[in-house]
Fold:
Amino acid sequence: MHTLFTRSLTWASALLLATSLTGCGYNDFQRLDEQSKSAWSEVLNQYQRRADLIPNIVATVKGEANFEQETLTQVIEARSKATSIQVTPEMVNDPAAMAKFQAAQGEVRSALSRLMVVVEQYPNLKANQAFSDLRVQLEGTENRITVARNRYIQTVQEYNVLQRSFPTNLTAMVFSYPAKANFQVENEAAISAPPKVDFNKP
Structure:
């Protein structure tokens, strides 16, 4: 009889614990944490895709006689700086590291934008099929970066609201769930817009 009572008490306690964890947002924290990790991985994948395109773009542009070396150097240096940052899963919990990462990627984007503007002065490059193909790939990658960033921003915002709201903030304190770092919203509209890489203008 005592064993039956103990088992019943154990099951009741487990049921109560499961119910309380569900009600206090524990499962939501798990879901959003996984979603934010997935979204962050996709952001990194798209930034890496862009970084991988740059050497081919630079090599193609170098073939154009008298092309502005300063512009090329800026692209190369920006890529080098961005790829030198050690990206870890913990970065999403470190606002300073996230800001540094975002600044470096912003420099890459700015340098590429300047490069594309300069290319307008070189008809041979605009007519180069290899460069045209790279331009299309870059444009598509910038669009995918924007989509991935926005998905990450939305997921982290949802997680952080849960982390700061009552009573789920108590769950966050008990289980040590810190707020996640997000992309800075300053100039977010300008940052999120893909660089203009239209070479079809007359």
The helical segments are 2-23, 26-62, 69-84, 95-119, 123-127, 129-164, 168-174, 188-192. The chain has one domain: 27-192. The radius of gyration is 24 Å.
